[in-house]
Write a structure and sequence with these properties.
Keywords: Glutamine amidotransferase, Hydrolase. The protein is of the alpha+beta class. The protein has seven helices and 13 strands. 23% of the residues lie in helices and 32% in strands. The strands form two sheets. Strands 3-2-4-1-10-9-11 form a seven-stranded antiparallel beta sheet. Strands 5-6-7-8-12-13 form a six-stranded antiparallel beta sheet, with helices on one face. A hairpin with a 5-residue loop joins β2 and β3. The longest helix has 15 residues. The protein binds glutamine.
């Protein structure tokens, strides 16, 4: 059910972040090891987002499997950033396989990814959707649970800092739609904020960089598994894991 990652650290090429480690996101697109309920491969598209020099998040997404897109090795090797998010998708049954349904979703300095499913979507989110301005609803990027959560999160980001916004939205969706699988990941160029609700999540930290990923990207001992129903704030030199 989708896999995602976030990186904050010294400038690296986007391609290296996505493909450069033994169990990279590219490997996880065709050979994930911890998919839990549902899905065997993540072949319904992928996306990458990175902080540009002006601080805004820029993204590249494609509805094709990551391993078929030459842009990963031809183009994304030429783009470097200190903050990168990546996602590979296994579409939830009934949701469309289109480019715009792929995470990361970006707006200003933020990039967002969702690994999981909102139970009983869209009815379960109807009351929450009332908070979303009509113009945002009418321009929803894709008719999917993840795009709806992103629209809700954008509202929260106008009112709160990123950590509080993500936590508020995760809690609200979790109570509106019990039994949802809500692994959210938000990056703002300097820090990564993530939830683990049902799906696997790990975090890596050393003196130089911090990474959050559905599955550890390599076999270094610095990876720590995040317990279910946790909220993670990760910045260089400081990882904080709390109960959601
Ligand atoms: N439900 C989301 C979608 O279909 C995410 C899918 C997933 O995590 N497998 O886009």
């Amino acid at each position: 059910m989708c896999r995602h990652l976030g990186y904050v650290g010294p400038p690296r090429s986007v391609a290296e972040v996505l493909t450069g480690q033994p169990h990279s996101l590219l490997t996880q697109s065709y050979a994930p090891t911890d998919m839990r309920r549902g899905g065997t491969v993540n072949a319904d598209g992928f996306g990458a987002a990175w902080s540009a020099p002006d601080g805004s998040m820029v993204s590249y997404r494609n509805a094709m499997p990551m391993w078929t897109d030459p842009a990963v090795t031809d183009v994304l090797t030429q783009v470097t950033s200190t903050c990168v998010l990546g996602a590979v998708r296994s579409a939830t049954v009934g949701m469309p396989i289109v480019r715009t349904a792929n995470a990361p979703f970006v707006d200003g300095r933020f990039a967002f990814s969702h690994n999981g499913v909102v139970a009983e979507w869209p009815t379960s989110m109807a009351a929450l959707a009332a908070q979303i301005p009509t113009e945002d609803l009418m321009t929803l990027e894709a008719p999917t649970d993840s795009a709806s959560v992103w629209a809700l999160l954008k509202v929260a980001l106008r009112e709160h800092g990123p950590g509080r916004a993500l936590r508020t939205v995760a809690t609200a969706v979790d109570s509106a739609a019990p039994n949802s699988r809500l692994n959210f990941l938000l990056g703002d160029g300097e820090a990564l904020y993530a939830t683990a609700v049902y799906h696997s999540l790990s975090v890596y930290s050393d003196d130089e960089c911090v990474m959050v990923a559905s599955e550890p990207l390599d076999f270094r001992p610095g990876w720590q598994s995040v317990p279910n129903r946790s909220f993670v704030t990760a910045r260089i030199g400081n990882v904080d894991v709390q109960d959601l």
